[in-house]
Records
---
Amino acid sequence: MVTQVARKRWERILVGARIAAVLLACVFPFIVMLSVSLKPPGDETTYPPSLIPRRITFKNYADLFNPRLFPFMRYFQNSMVVALAAASLAIIVAVPGAYAFARLKFAGRELVQRGILSAYMFSGVLLVVPYYRAVIRLQEALSVQLVDTKLVLVLTYLAFTLPVSLYMLGNYFRTIPAEIEESAMIDGCTRTGVIWRVIIPLSGPALVAVFIYAFMIAWNEYLFALVFLISPEKLTLPRGLAELFNTQHYIWGRMMAASLLTAVPVVSLFLALERFMTAGLTVGGVKE
Amino acid sequence: MAPVLAATRRRGSSVSQREGRLAWALLAPSVILVGLVVVYPIISSIRMGFTHIPLDPAMPEEFVGLEQYSEIVHDPEFWLAIVRSLVHTAATVAGSTLLGLAVAVLMNREFAGRGIARGIVLMPYVAPLISLVFAWRYMFHPVYGFVNYWFVDILPIFSGPRDWVESPAFAMPMVILFDIWRYFPYAFLMILARLQSIPKTLYEAAEVDGAGSWAKFRHITMPELSFVLGSIVVLRWIWNFTKFDDVWLLSRNVVTVTVYAYLRAFQSFDLGQAAAISSLLALGLIASVSLYVKKVLRW
C-alpha cells in the first residue's frame, strides 16, 4: 500500500514537472524579449548569455517613444489603423453574409459555402503575384493610387478573414432559437430588421471573437505589407520592424522592447477573451 | 389573404424567390471580396503562367505556351526548393501534431491553474510572428545565443558553436524547430477539445477489464482522435507547404519553394515565371483541398 501511494505521488510530481517544462518552453522566448529589452547596450551581447539583467534600464522603452530615434510609434499607429479598419469591416460584411448562410434557403448555397471555405486554405503566397499584378492594372485603369496605400491592405486582410468570420458567425447564429426571430417577424419586423434587432444583440461573444480574429490577422500579416508598402512612413509593424532588423543598425534591446510591445495588444486581447476565442480557433483553425 | 397572394403572384415572386434574392444581396459583399482577392488571382495565375509579362506594364504581354513551365522544371534550383519544402513540411507537420497530441494528453486532467496553462500554451500561436522571430534569432545567435551556450558549454552535444542563421545546414533545423513550436498549440487545441468529449465511462469500463494506461490510449483515445488528427495533418500540410513569412524572416538561407517563387517575382521581377510556380502549387493543393472539404470537413 505504501509503495502504491508513493508511486501515485511520484506520478503526480512527474506530470507536474512535464507541464512546467511545456509552459516554460512556450514562454521562454517572451522571457528573452523582456530580459533583453531591460538590458543596456553591451550587456545583451555578453557571453555566456544570462536571463537576469545585471543592470536594468528602461531606456529601450523610452527610445520607442522617441520618433527621431526609432519610428516605432508611426508603425504602431499604421498597424492600428489597418487592423481596426479590417476588423470593423469584417463584422459589417460578415454579419449579413453569415445570416444568409444560417437562415436563408437559396439556390447555390452549398456551392458558395464550399467555395468560400476552400478559399481560406490558399495561403497568401499563392495569390500574391497575380493579385499584385491585378492591383497594378486596376490602379492604371482607374488612375487611383492603390499600391503603397492602407486601403489595399485593409481590403486584402478583410477578404482573408471573411471565410472564418462567416463560418464562426454562421454557426453562432444557428444556435439562436428561430422562434425569437419568428415572433419578431409576426410583430412586423423585416428580415433585415431581425438581423439588426434580434441577431446582433444576441451575438455579442461571436462578434467579439470575429473582431479579434480579424484584428490579429491584420496586425500580424507580413507578406502583403512587404509587397504593397513602399514609403517608410506607411509601414506596418511587422514590415517596419523587419526592415529595421535588416539594416544592421538595430540595437537588440530596442528591437526586443518593440517586439514585446507589438505582441502585447494581441496576446492580452486573446488571453482576456480566450473563452470566446477558442471556439473560433477549433472551427478549423486560424490561418496566420 | 387572397388579395395579398394575388399581388405576390402578379409580381411573379414567391416567398422563396424573395428569400433567395435577399440571401444573395446579403452575401454579395463577401462573395465579391473573396472572389477578387482569392478566386480571381488563382485563375489569373494559371493564365499568367502561359504569358511572358514584360517589366513595363505598358508593353504588351506575350503568350509563350509552356515555355515558362519548361524553364522551371529544368531548373535544378526549383527541385532543390521543392525538396526543402517537402522536408520542412513533413518535419513540421509530424512534429507539431505529435507534440500537440502529447501536450493535450498531458493537460487533459484536473490541475490547479489549468485555464491559465492552456492560455500560455496558445501564446506561441497567437503572438505576432515578427516578435517571435526576433526572440528566436537572439536565442539562436551564433555568438551570444542561448542555444549554442546550452548545447556547447553546458551539455556538450555539439563540438562547437553552430551558425544557426547563416549556414543553410543549420538554418533549416532552426526553422523546423520554430514552426513545430509555433504550430503545436493548434494541434493541441483541436485534440484537447476532442479529448474532453470522450465519455469517462469508456475508460472506467476498460479499467474494470484490467487495461493499463497504454492500452487505454491505444484502444480508446486513438480511435476517437483519428478524425481530428486527420484534419490537422491535412490542413497543416497545406498551410506549412505554402508557408513563406516564417521561413523568410528567420533566415534568408532556407530557400523553400515559396521563397523561390517570391524571389522570382520580386527580385528577378519575372512575374510570369513566378505565376507559373504559384499555379503549379495551387493546382497541387486544389486537389487536396477539394478532397479535404468533401471528405473531412463538415460545414
---
Amino acid sequence: MNRSRFISRRQGDWYRFRQLLDRADRLSFSRLGGEEISELSRLLRALSYDLAVVRSRDWGLELERRLNDLVVRGHGIYYRAPPGGLRKVVEFLLTGFPRLLRENHGYFWVSLALFSIPGLIAGVLIALDPSLAERLLSPDVLAQVEAMHSTNERSGGLFTGREVGATGFYVFNNVGIAFRCFATGVLLGVGTAIFLVYNSIVIGAISGYLVARGHAMPFFSFVISHGAFELTAIVVSGAAGLVLGRAMVHPGSRTRLDALRVRGLVAIKLVAGAAAMLFVAAFVEGFWSPSGAPMVAKLAVGSVLWAVVVGYLALAGRTRPPEREGDRP
Amino acid sequence: MTASSNVVSASIDSQVHVETPENVWLSFRVAGPAPRAWAYVIDFFVRGLILLALALLLSLVTPLLGFSALPQGIMLLGMFVVIFLYGCLFEYFWDGRTPGKRAARIRVLKVAGYPISFWDAFLRNLLRSADILPGLYGVGLVAILSTRRMQRLGDLVAGTFVVHEERDVVRGYPPWVHGVPVIPAQERSHAFRPPERTLDLIETFLTRAQRLSPARADEIAHILAGPLRQRLGYWDPEQQHAVAPGWFLLRVLRTFVYPPTESQPGHNVDLPGLPVAPPGSMSRSAPDPHPQAPPTPPQWGQR
C-alpha cells in the first residue's frame, strides 16, 4: 500500500475519531453512549496502529505529527483518572485519612517527638526562670502575648464579626504554615525538622512564660479546644514532610525518584487531612476559644475535643468495610 | 521505532516519548522554563485581579453589614484560596491548565501522557514552596534544567510534566499548488519516482520556505533540487537553465503528490493529508496560521 492509498483508505476513521473526541470534550466522557465508547476504543487502537505504520514507513513528519496529536487526545480521554466527587471526599476524611496515618504511625511519633520535646524543655525551663524567655522572644512580643492571654473573654460579647476575621486569619496563616512545613520535607526532611523544632520552642517558651506569670488558667482554657485540632494537625503535616524526607534519604530498594513518587502520594493525602483539621481548628479558634464561656466549661469542652481527635485518628475506619464488586478494576 | 525516528528524537531534545498500552509511542514537546515563566506571570496577574475584584465587592458590602472584621475574614479566606489552591483547583478542573498555562498553550500531564488527578495537582502545587526556595524558583529551575522531562521538584514527586499543547492545525491540500503545471512524462527521461520521505521533505520545506529569507530559501531549494533533477533526468524544453529550483520543487510536488484529477484539472478532490472537517465542527482547533496560504515566494513565479 502506498502513502496516498493508505491515507484515502484510513482517513474516514481519522475523521470519525476526531468527531468522537470533540463530542467527548463537549459532553464529558461519561455521557457518551455505550456504542460511541466502544467505537472510540476501537478507533484508538486502530489509530495507534496507523501511527506505527506511518512511522515505520517514514510517510512524513507532518502526517505523523497529526496522527500523534489525535492519538494523544484519545489517550488522555481514555486513560484519565476516574472522576472524584463529594462522596470520595467524605469517605477519605471519615476513613481513608486516619487509616493512612495509622499505616505510617512511625512518622507521626517522630514528628510528635520533634514537636513536643524541645517545647517541653523550653517551657519547663522558662516556667522556672521567666527571665530566660527574653533570650528567645523580644519584650514587645512577650508583653503582647501577656496582654492577650491574661483574661478569659477576648471577643467582647455578642457577635461582632471579629470571629470571622480571626477565623480567616487562622486559615490563611496556619494552613499555609502546615503546607510549607510539609513541602520543605522534600529537602531531605531538614526543612520539616527545623520547622517543627522551631515552632515547638516558641510555643513552649510562650506557655512557660505565661505559666510563670500566673496566667496558666486563662491561657490553657483558651488553647485547649482548638489545640486539639491545630497541634495534632501540625504534627501530621510534619509527619507528611518526614515521609518525603525519608524517601529522599533512604529510598530503600527503589530509586530516589520512584520512592519520592510512591511516597509522595501518601504524604499529600496526609497533608490534605491535616489541612481539613486545621480548618476545623480555625473555626474553633475564631468562635469558641475567645468566647465568654466560663473557663471550666472551656476546659471541659476542650478535653472532650482532645478525646474526639485522638479517637478519630486512632479508631476511625477500623471496622472492615463489606467487600464491594467493581471497587477494584 | 525505526532508526530514523530515533535520530529525530535524539536530535530534537525537547521531544519526550511515552509508550502507551497500545504499544505505540506518543511524542510530546516538553515546555521549558520560558513558557512556564510566562504562564506564571499571567497567572500572577489573574490572581491579583481576582483578589482585587473580591476586595472591591467586599468594600461595597461592608457599609451594609456594619462589621469591619467580617469582610476582613472573608478577604483572608479568599487570599488563602488564591494563594494556595488556585493552581491546584484550576489544574484539576481544567485538565492540567491554569489561565496562564492556557494562554501560553501549555498543559500539565502525567508522565504516562494522560490527565492529572486531584492528588497530583494538589501535590505539585504545594511543593511550589520547596521549588521557590532560595528565591526566584532557584531549586525549581535547577531541577527543570537537569531533568530530561524538564520537571521541577513538584513535578518529580507528583510524576507530572508540562508539555506544549498539540497544535491542532488543519492543513489539507496546500493552496499554493493550484495552477502549478505537472512535469510531463516526456520531459523526464527516467521512470524515477522520488521516495515518499523525499516528497515529504519537499513539502515540509515549501511550507516553511515562506518564513525564510528569499536568498536562503533559494539556497536550500537548490540543494534539494540539484540531485533530484539529475535522478529525474529532467529537462525543460524552453529554458533549460533558467528554471528556479523552488519552482522545480513545486512542480515535483504537483506531479507526484498532488496530481490534478481528470474530472477537475487543477483541483484535487481526493485530499491527501488529514481529514478536513466541515467548517464549524473544529471547535478545538486553533486558527490556521496560513488561512489562505500565501502563494509561494514571488521570485519562484513562472519565469
---
Amino acid sequence: MEREPVPAPADAAPAAGDWMIRFDQVVKRFGDLTVLDHLDFHVRAKERVTLIGPSGSGKTTILRLLMTLERVTGGLIEVDGRPFSHMPGRGGLVPANEKHLRVARRKIGMVFQQFNLFPNMDVMRNITEAPVRSLGRSREEAETRGAELLEMVGLADKAHEHPARLSGGQQQRVAIARALAMEPEILLLDEVTSALDPELVAGVQCLLRDIAQESQLTILCVTHEMHFARDISDRVLMFDRGRIVEDGPPEQIFGEPREQRTRDFLQAVIEAG
Amino acid sequence: MMLSFTAPGPLGTAAEVLPYLLDGAVVTVKVALGATPVALALAFIAGLAGCSGSRWARGVSRGYLEFFRGTAVIVQMYWIFYAMPALTGYRLDPVFAGVIAVGLNLGAYGSEVVRGAIAAVPVPQREAGIALNFGPVQRMVRIILPQAWVAMLPPLNNLWIELLKATSLVSVISVADVIAESRTLRNTGYSPLVVMTLVLLIYLLLALIITLIMRMLERRAAHRVGREPPPLLPRRRRRRPPVPVRGEVA
C-alpha cells in the first residue's frame, strides 16, 4: 500500500489545547482517485460541525477516517491532542495498529445512513452488547442505561422487539441510542435521515437537535438537509473535491455565502428539494 | 392373493435380511456421526482461515480445500488405511480411518460454505461492529457468525447428506456397514431386488432424518435474526387472488 511519509510529529503538546479533532495535511486516495487532498481543519471540543458539499466531495470519507473504517494515505489525524491515525514508534509516528485504534476510537461513536442494527440481537441487546463486551460494564448496569436511552429516544416499549419489526425511523432511533450507550465524546452522523421515509425524517432530526443542545458532545454531521444543518450546527464546512471551499457559521454560509461554489451548490440543493 | 410367509417371497426375504441390514445401518450411522464433528470442525477452521487477513492462513486453507476436493474419497480412504501404514508402520482401525477420510473430505467442501456465508454478511455490519469498538474476534463471534450461520444451514444440510452417502465407501476398507452387509446377503443368494431396495430405503430414511434436524435448526436460526422461519414440511402454496380487471367491480 502506498503511504505518504508522515510529517514530523507535532510538538508534544498541541499548541491549542482545546482542539478535539485536528486534520493535518490529510490525504486519502482510493486507487487513482484522490478523495481528500492535503486537508487541514480543526474542530473544537463540543463544537457542532456540519459538512456539506456535492456527492464525492469527501465528506463521508472524513467521518469514515475518524471511525477508523478507512486509513489515511498521508498526513495525520489527531483526536483530543493525541495522534489518532498514527502511533509513536521507530522514533517518529507509524500507522496505528489495531490495538492503538481500539483505544483511540473509544471516544468516537457513529450513526450510519442505513442504521446497521444487528439483526441477531433484539433492541436492548443491540444497545447493551458493546458496553458489556467492549467497556466491561455489567449486564445490569448496561441494561439500566439502555432503558434510559430507549426512554429518551421514545422507544421504551420496544426493548425486546426485533429490529426487523421496527420502522426505519425507529431503527435509526435505536442506532442513536446504541451509539450514545458507548458514552462517546465525538458523535459522527452520516446522512442519518437520507434512508428514511419523508414523514419520519422530522422526528429523528428533532431528537438529534435535542441531543445536540443538551449534551456535551462534539458532533460532526454530514447531511443534505440544509434546514437540519442550520439547526444543529454552530459551524458549517462547505467541501468540494476534497478541499474546504468555505468555513463559517450557518447564518453566514446559508445567508450570505462568500464563495461562488457554495452559492451554486446551495442553489442546486434548493432547486432539487 | 394370500401372502405366504413360509415361502421366501419378497416380504419374507425382507423380514429375513432386515436385521442384518439394520446391523449394518447402525455402523453406517456410527461412521456418519463420527465424521460429522470432524467435518464440521475442519469446515469452520478452514472456512475462518479462508477469510483471515493472513495470507499464510488463507494459503493453508486453500491448499486443504483443493487437495481434498480434488481427490476422490475412496482414494483418500485407501491411502489412509493401506498406504499410510507403510509410512508410519501403524494401521488405523478401519472405522476410524473411514471417519477421518470422510471428515477430511466433507470438511473441505464445508469450508467453502462457511467462507461464502461469512463473506455474504453485509460489510456495514462489520463496520457497525468497528464503530462500537468490538475487537476482531468479538465481531466475528457476536455479529458475523450468528448471521452467517443462517445462510450456512441449507448448504450444510446438503453436505451432511453427502457425508452420509460418502460413508458407503467404508465397506472397501472392511467396515461392516450397510453396504458391506448387503453385499454379503447378495452373495449368500438373497434377492438383490429386495436387498438393494431395502438399502435404498434405509439411506433415504437417514437422509430424511438429517433434513428434519437441519430444518429445525434453520427455523430456529431464522427466528433469531428476525426472519420468517421456513416451514418444517413443505406447505401448499397459497394461490394469489385473481387480480380484478380494471373497471370491473369486485
